[in-house]
Amino acid sequence: MIRNPAKMDEITTIGVVGAGQMGAGIAQLAAVNGLNVWLLDSDPNSLTRATKTIANSLQRLASKGQLSQAVISDALKRLHCTTSLKDFHSADIVIEAIAESEVAKKNLFVELDKTTKSSAILASNTSSISITRLASVTSRPSQVIGMHFMNPPPIMKLVEIIRGADTSDETFSATKTLAERFGKTVVCSKDYSGFIVNRILMPMINEAFFTLYTGVATKEDIDAGMKLGTNQPMGPLELADFIGLDVCLSILKVLHGGLGDVKYAPCPLLAQYVDAGRLGRKSGVGVYDYR
Ligand code: CAA
């Protein structure tokens, strides 16, 4: 059934699922920009950590004069944490930012479809999984869309918007306007594995791993070469640690499977690091040691 999705001027309340780095950053952007926010995670400890991350990030922005204490105080009042989907009953849009698992995301979309109001837009922050397939488990595929923020969401200027096969113009327009309200520039991608950014970024990161794996250069020289040689803020191996090696591996598998080209096959060294629990900054060790 086609319903009328929430229009941008009617979006006052947002639900964010997943209180990791991305979910916390998205919740922060929404609260600062005047929305009532419900941040949901099944783990109360993650919610506590996310609240601290958001408070720290807001203070960093305040210390640079980018936010006033009054804006911060109002934002924190609008931010609510919950472990129950029932609190999403008034949400005009829900953005999920849980782990990159198609099964987990589909299960969540089934639940969101049942518990949110019929006009709500259901958005996914997925970095590579098909929006069309996520939409297919709901009764509202025209209101399902990809809204892909870059890490860290409060700082990075881009949001990639992905239309599934049935995403309506109204859903696209409301989502684009919301991203712009967050101060982001929008690029629009068709729904093919990896969209724009990861389709191009992940082969570079993978190639950096192959360069290390085949002994062409040290990790420091690979990173310095790309950082200073192509003016990137981080070298590709350092960036992989920042994103999470498990996340990079999972995106490469989606690219490899979805686009069917061997050029996306993950480097064995990347897979081995993940097998060893070396996931990057979040686990204390990845390509580099942060302990
Ligand atoms: N909140 C508020 N401010 C923050 C912040 C946060 N979460 N993170 C960083 N900052 C601010 C710092 O306060 C600092 O401000 P000043 O320069 O004014 O002092 C500034 O950002 C730079 O931070 P740092 O000095 O701590 O460190 P840095 O100079 O190395 O910058 C970085 C950090 C912004 C992350 C930068 O290294 C960078 O841009 N790296 C590349 C990030 C990137 O490519 N992200 C996209 C990854 S791909 C992706 O996300 C898609 C996917 O699906 C995998």
Automatic annotation (TrEMBL):
Residue ranges occupied by any 3-hydroxyacyl-CoA dehydrogenase NAD binding domain in the UniProt entry: 13-191
This protein's superkingdom?
A: Eukaryota
- Known InterPro entries for this protein? 3-OHacyl-CoA_DH (IPR022694), 3-OHacyl-CoA_DH_CS (IPR006180), 3-OHacyl-CoA_DH_NAD-bd (IPR006176), 3HC_DH_C (IPR006108), 6-PGluconate_DH-like_C_sf (IPR008927), 6PGD_dom2 (IPR013328), NAD(P)-bd_dom_sf (IPR036291)
GO molecular function annotation: enoyl-CoA hydratase activity; NAD+ binding; oxidoreductase activity; oxidoreductase activity, acting on the CH-OH group of donors, NAD or NADP as acceptor
Recorded catalytic activity of this chain's protein: a 4-saturated-(3S)-3-hydroxyacyl-CoA = a (3E)-enoyl-CoA + H2O; a (3S)-3-hydroxyacyl-CoA = a (2E)-enoyl-CoA + H2O
Please provide the record's keywords in A-Z order. Answer: NAD, Oxidoreductase
Q: Does the keyword NAD apply?
A: yes
Q: Per the database record, which ranges form the 3-hydroxyacyl-CoA dehydrogenase C-terminal domain?
A: 194-290
Binding sites annotated in the UniProt record for CoA: 57, 64, 127
Among the GO biological process terms of this entry, one is: fatty acid metabolic process
Determine if NAD is one of this entry's keywords: yes
- Can you say what this protein is called? Uncharacterized protein isoform X2
Q: Please name the source species.
A: Spinacia oleracea
Q: What gene does this protein come from? A: LOC110783618
